[in-house]
Design goal:
Number of helices of chain A: 0
Order of helices and strands of chain A: EEEEEEEEEEE
Order of helices and strands of chain B: EEEEEEEEEEE
Distance between the termini of chain B: 37 Å
Number of helices of chain B: 0
Structural class of chain A: mainly beta
Radius of gyration of chain A: 14 Å
Strand content of chain B: over 45%
Number of strands of chain A: 11
Largest sheet of chain B: 7 strands, mixed
Structural class of chain B: mainly beta
Radius of gyration of chain B: 13 Å
Shape of chain B: globular
Distance between the termini of chain A: 41 Å
Oligomer: heterodimer
Number of strands of chain B: 11
Largest sheet of chain A: 6 strands, mixed
Strand content of chain A: over 45%
Shape of chain A: globular
Chain lengths: 115, 108
């Protein structure tokens, strides 16, 4: 099955600085890559995603890049704020049919933004 | 915005007991998933359900687990004889974005 590796496991940044989280995946058939933010005791919340036909996607302060050849993708958060502190998970999925989103998750990155 | 709702929010059970976790899906969404997250660890796929049948299950989803749709609309995840290592958050989900709020299962 799909194996998703995520680094780093913890990340501490000064408020206003950027944070970068990197993931690699094993199955070249994976074609959908979402990122989730999870606050303590809460559900995963989708924050951005990218499909394999796109190399980069941006939404305000967050962006995701995908390198299909190298099988890795990254999350970039710019101008970090204290409310960005959370656990972030990457995931990969092989979308085999319409609306089938079976997800394989990375191990998570605990991001702490220091004020 | 449509919501996936789960009950109970927290369940404490004795080891060896059966538990049933419930999920109210969003109507007309065909694919449905159960995931598990042990405290401090990653979210793990358990089983997917399509068109009222199990379409895929992980190695975690052994004979102790079952998933049903008893009334044709709501879903249940049953663990027949709970073990300490079943303690985790259990999430049901549609697609990539619609996660329920989770049930925290504590086995003592």
């Amino acid at each position: 099955g799909e194996n998703v590796e995520q680094h780093p496991s913890t990340l501490s940044v000064q408020e206003g600085d950027s944070a970068v989280i990197k993931c690699t995946y094993s199955d070249s058939a994976s074609n959908y890559f979402p990122w989730y933010k999870q606050e303590l005791g809460k559900r995963p919340q989708l924050i951005i995603d990218i499909r394999s036909n796109v190399g980069e996607k941006k939404d305000q302060r967050i962006a995701v890049t995908l390198n299909k050849t190298a099988k890795h993708f990254s999350l970039h958060i710019t101008e970090t704020q204290p409310e960005d502190s959370a656990v972030y998970f990457c995931a990969a999925s092989i979308m085999r049919g319409s609306n089938d989103y079976k997800l394989s998750f990375g191990a998570g990155t605990t991001v702490t933004v220091r004020a | 915005e449509p919501e996936v709702t789960q009950t109970p929010s927290h369940q404490v059970t004795q080891m060896g007991q059966e538990v049933i976790l419930r999920c109210v899906p969003i109507s007309n969404h065909l694919y449905f998933y159960w995931y598990r997250q042990i405290l401090g660890q990653k979210v793990e796929f358990l089983v997917s359900f399509y068109n009222n049948e199990i379409s895929e299950k992980s190695e975690i989803f052994d004979d102790q687990f079952s998933v049903e749709r008893p009334d044709g609309s709501n879903f249940t995840l049953k663990i027949r004889s709970t073990k300490l290592e079943d303690s985790a958050m259990y999430f049901c989900a549609h697609y990539e974005a619609f996660f329920g709020q989770g049930t925290r299962l504590t086995v003592v």
